[in-house]
Amino acid sequence: MKNVILFIGVVLCYFLLSYLDKNFITTSSKMIDFLAKDYPNEVIQNYMESQKKWWWVSYAATPIFIGIKVLLVAFCLNFIKLLDLPGLDNIKFSDLVFLILIAEFVFIIAGFYKFVNFYWIDTDYTIENLQTYYPISLINYRDYISSEKWLTYPLQLVNLFELFYWGILAWGVCELSEQKISFPESLGLTTITYGVGLLFWVGVVSFFILNAQY
Question: How confident is the model at residue 34 (pLDDT cuts 50, 70, 90)?
């Protein structure tokens, strides 16, 4: 039951972030300015009308995407039980789901950070800025690293919030083992389970982005 309540809380927070983004950041005027560079007015008007008509789709998809993400991360972390280490046998899959839902608030905080940045600080922004920006990440220094489009997603993932996320997962595994394994050992377990899964996912996304360029 606690997982359900926490999941609903996470989803509601993402709903709020989506509402703030659509109404105050990714506004209609910003979208029109962005699309006007490449498309005629008729196409833009049709797109904006479809956005108004199907506004609910993104909200309906949010719980599905969050649920899939949480289950996939829990699936990866669950492999630590295959290792012959003290305290890991008693960890339930539902405990891992609860831990991951707690850790998900790190990315919610990142979302609010992004909103504050564009609403109060960097107000002279474009849709291109919104698409590539991620708080406290290497993507913000892309001009000094590489302009390759396929590197956009990996550079976004190298950020302080992702580091906090790993830290919470490692701390949680340590606590679930009743501290029978140390935090450094738990961080290592997180790396060879969630880390490997994340690396695979980044490779897949980067591959599709790279192929889409040709």
Answer: confident
Write 75-84 long-range contacts (CB < 8 A, 24+).
75/197, 76/193, 76/194, 76/196, 76/197, 77/169, 77/173, 77/190, 77/193, 77/194, 78/193, 79/193, 80/173, 80/189, 80/193, 83/189
C-alpha span between 18 and 58 (Å, rounded): 8
CA dihedral 133, 171, 75, 159 (to 10 degrees): 10
Question: Would you tell me the crossing angle of helices 56-77 and 93-103 to the nearest 10 degrees?
Answer: 130
At 194, the pLDDT band (50, 70, 90 cuts) reads very high
Type of residue at 123: T
The residue with tokens 């890991």 is: 88
Long-range contacts of residues 59-65, Cβ cutoff 8 Å, at least 24 apart: 59/15, 59/18, 62/11, 62/14, 62/15, 62/18, 63/7, 63/11
Entry pTM: 0.93
